Amino acid sequence: MNKNIITGKKGEDKASSYLEDLGYKIIDRNWHYSKNGEIDIIALDNNTLVFIEVKTRTNLNYGHPFESISKIKIQKIQKAILAYLSNCKIKYKSYRFDGIAIIGLNNPIIEHIKNLGQY
Question: What is the reported pTM?
Fold first, then answer.
C-alpha cells in the first residue's frame, strides 16, 4: 500500500478517535459519491450531521494540511454532501462541513475547523 494512503488512513483513525472523545457519533467513513468524490468521516454532533475532510501530514515540510483543501476540493465535497443528503433516509435539520488537520502521527497536533462550507 502507498505510504501516503497509509498515512491518510492513520490520520483518519486519529481524527475519528478525537471526534468520539468530543462526543461525536461516527456514522460512516470513506463514503464514496463518485470516482472523484469522497467524504472522509460523517458524524453526528448532537443533532447536527457533520461531514469532515481529514488532511494528514507527518510534518510541515510540504505545508500545512489545510493548504491542500482547494476550492475545487471543497466543490467536490459539497457535491458529495448533497448526494449523501438526497439519498439519506433520515432528514437532518442541521448539517455542516468541517476540516480536521493532523500533523504528526505519534503525538499528533489536531486542528479542527468547523463550518468550512456553509449551507
Answer: 0.92
